[in-house]
Amino acid sequence: MLDVEVDLAGPAWLALRTPPPPGKGASEGGFPKSELGGLLFSHTSPVYVEVGGKAVWDAGVARGLLEEVRRAKETILQKAIFADGHEKAHVLGVYDAAVETLEKLIGR
User: Fold this and answer.
1) Contact (Cβ atoms closer than 8 angstroms) between residue 8 and residue 51
2) Every domain of the chain and the residues it spans
C-alpha cells in the first residue's frame, strides 16, 4: 500500500512506475533485467483526479489519438489475418467504438 499526499493545482492523472528505467546516459546498474537482458519495470494504469469538478482534457491530444486509432484500424484492415468474420468484426468493433467515443468527446 502506498500512502502519499500530492499537492495538485488542478486536474491531473497519476500513475506509479516501478522501478523507473534509468534516464538517458544513466547507468543501468541495480535495475533488474529480464531473461533477454531488458530492464524490468512496470507502469500502472492512470488514476484520474478531478479538481473543482474539472477533469484532465486536452482536445489536441485527443485528436492525435483519434488519428492514431484510425491509422491502426487501416493497418488491421490491410494486414491482419483473422480466424473468421466474427473475430474480424469483434476487433474492428473495438476500434469503431474508440473512434465514436473520441469523436463525441472532441465534439463537446
Assistant:
1) yes
2) 1-56, 59-107
Residue 99's SS3 state is helix
What pTM, to 2 d.p., does this model score?
A: 0.60
Nearest CA to 108 out of 62, 69, 49 is that of: 62
CB atoms within 10 A of CB 12: 15
C-alpha cell at 2: 502506498
Q: How far is CA 53 from CA 7, 56, 74, in A?
A: 17, 10, 37
The count of residues in the chain is 108
Question: 62-72: per-residue pLDDT in tens?
Answer: 999 999 999 99
Residue 75 and residue 95 in contact, taking contact as beta carbons nearer than 8 Å: no
pLDDT in tens, 25-53: 666 667 777 888 887 888 899 999 999 89
What cell was used for 53? Answer: 469538478
In sequence order, the 6+-apart residues with CB closer than 8 A to the CB of 88 are 80, 82
> Helices (DSSP H) in 1-108: which residue ranges?
59-79, 85-107
